[in-house]
Amino acid sequence: MKTALNLTDKWPFVTIDPALSEYRDKILFPEKLKQANQVLKTAKFPPNKNRR
Known about the structure:
Helix content: 25-40%
Oligomer: single chain
Strand content: 5-15%
Order of helices and strands: EEH
Largest sheet: 2 strands, antiparallel
Mean pLDDT: 81
Number of strands: 2
Radius of gyration: 19 Å
Distance between the termini: 40 Å
Structural class: alpha+beta
Number of helices: 1
Low-confidence stretches: none
Shape: flat
């Protein structure tokens, strides 16, 4: 990822490298994904009053 700062604006422009699109559908860390899903399954969340 490259960042090019335009001096007239306050915000940087970020251009994403097209070579990264090869990783779009790949799971890079399957063990961590499995662990995170397990933690989310067993997590106790507070009740959400705005939930329908």
